[in-house]
């Protein structure tokens, strides 16, 4: 044990003897006293070189990330464009069939610019052609997705141009800093240069150690972020599953009364709306002041104002809540009990529908008013 201990002690002493002594900055300043001005210029150029190098590398990484995102967006847009063309070709074929039957050749009734076009299209779809409302909805949804991909590509192209401009700026800064650093170095005397070399090597070791420490801290934070990302992804998957169930709706409800007989409507669940919202109901278009009927027996709550304008909630006896919006007027009062099929209001365009075609915006909340809305289209289509 004694011999082993002695050997270890000797080795430790040799390591300590080989380790370079710590250099103080004051020693460098003293050795470079004769060329203090040039040293200040050199150190300033060196600082600029380190800053430019760091910023240049950051910009390069950002460019690679943006290019990767752009590649993904372009790939998605290309696939979506193919899908849109296939769906549009199918609808054009349907338009030809309608032309052969009725002399109307246009996609406008199906894909029209206004809700009125959709009303006309709905009557065409009732002529017995094979075109389905679902085909139109698939096309419109795919076209919206394609437009979003194209918007993302345009934004990424603008971002890349800005990043490339920044890269050029920092490349120029890096070249200037390198040139200034070399020129200032040549002005230092031999003794000053030697001590500066030792000082920089010492500081480089410190920076490397600090970089290792930061890297370890970054790995720790990355592990925490990854764990949090997994938790968020699980929550997202669960939310997507719920949204999928909401988008599919709950299907037919036995005994449900059509709220607006003779109205025209399509499945517009999830369609984009102002303020980043998405459509959570079905819009049923028809004449202004047409009668609207209670879908089920229940109790009335009156609403007035906001996006929905004049509206009502029917809290049905089965626990399902039905929301009617944009009414021109009411046929019931707060707290009334209504039976299925009773007139509850009149079709209008109040709220954020003001100035547009009169229609009933209808929502279905299977677990009551406080619960989430589900796609009402399958349920209302079965009832109407």
Would you write up a description of this structure?
It is a single chain. By secondary structure, this protein is α+β, with helices and mostly antiparallel strands. Helices cover 59% and strands 11% of the residues. It has eight helices and nine strands. It has helices at 2-18, 25-31, 36-102, 108-111, 115-125, 133-186, 190-248, 377-383, and strands at 282-285, 291-293, 298-304, 310-316, 321-327, 329-330, 337-338, 343-346, 359-365. The strands form two sheets. Strands 1-9-5-4-3-7 form a six-stranded antiparallel sheet. A three-stranded antiparallel sheet has the order 2-8-6, with no helix packed on it. Strand 3 (298-304) and strand 4 (310-316) form a beta hairpin. Helix 2 (25-31) packs across helix 7 (190-248) and helix 3 (36-102) runs antiparallel to helix 6 (133-186). The chain is elongated, with a radius of gyration of 36 Å.
Please describe the structure with a list of short key phrases separated by commas or semicolons:
8 helices; 59% helix; 384 residues; disordered N terminus; 3-stranded antiparallel β-sheet; alpha+beta
Order of helices and strands: HHHHHHHEEEEEEEEEH
What's the arrangement of strands in the largest beta sheet?
1-9-5-4-3-7
Number of distinct beta strands: 9
Helix content: 55-70%
The total count of helices amounts to 8
Derived structural class? alpha+beta
Estimated radius of gyration: 36 Å
Mean pLDDT: 77
Sheet with the most strands, sense and barrel status = 6 strands, antiparallel
